[in-house]
Amino acid sequence: MKNVPENWIEHLLRKASGAHKYDYGHAAIYAAPSMTGATRLASTAAARMGAGLVSVISTEVSAPIYMAALPAHIIVRDDVRWNDSRVTARAYGSGGMSRGVKIRFNRPCVLDADALVCMPDHMNDTCVLTPHEGEFANVFPNINKGSREERALAAAQKCGAIIVLKGQGSVIAHPDGRVCVNNHDSPHLASAGTGDVLAGMICGLLAQGMPAFEAACAGVWIHGEAGCRIGAGLVASDIELVLGQILTELNGADGGT
Q1: DSSP 16-52
Q2: Could you tell me which of 7, 4, 13, 20 has the C-alpha nearest to residue 251?
Q3: How many CB atoms lie within 10 A of CB 76?
Q4: What structural domains does the chain harbor?
Q5: What whole-number distance in Å separates Cα of residue 72 and Cα of residue 77?
Q6: Does this model's pTM top 0.90?
Q7: Which end of the chain is more exposed for a tag (fewer CB within 10 A), N or C?
Q8: What is the pLDDT of residues 214-245, one digit of tens each?
């Protein structure tokens, strides 16, 4: 299946007059202990994708860095044990995992980078894993034969979660057998930090209640569209600057683009 907006646009939440921020979810981004830029990219991307509130969950030591560097609309929590029943999605791993963080699966979540090595043997299809080829080989060493589509699907069925196998022609696979290939991308996305942005984008969509497979497909397509629009000279922090325009156009589309 080709990744096109027609497949998921009906699940893309449109903000309504009179709504409250919690109507659009609360995304919790678990902070990296030292590679703070990755967390900053993921958290601002989640907010740009429409999450009503974004919190960065940090250690007490790292919290002052995040408080100083993040924009005012991102809330920094200085205790990795912090929790709130209003959290609707979580993202872990971008830039690293702080000590004491326990991955919770009672809400939709994104596992990226270092979180991939902390995952249990089996999860559920509200969880999205976002490995690149190197991470995939490390996490699923026995799944090393076949096409990218076949390997992504085998991994999804093994762990029970959605797999986004990143790279040229990213593959999104669901344990139920659905496989989507994204050819709407840009070589300019081969730049440090763009994967952290993608993790935050998917988390922002999950926070709003978008089903995980559709959120992964939408996040990957929109990420690719951003890369196409920005073009040469792209750095990861540029991506969030075009997300509003892309979402506005998608929200105004009649059945997709």
Answers
A1: -TT--GGGG-EEEEEPPSS-HHHHHHHHHHHHHTT-S
A2: 13
A3: 20
A4: 25-250 (3.40.1190.20)
A5: 13
A6: yes
A7: N
A8: 999 999 999 999 999 999 999 999 999 999 99
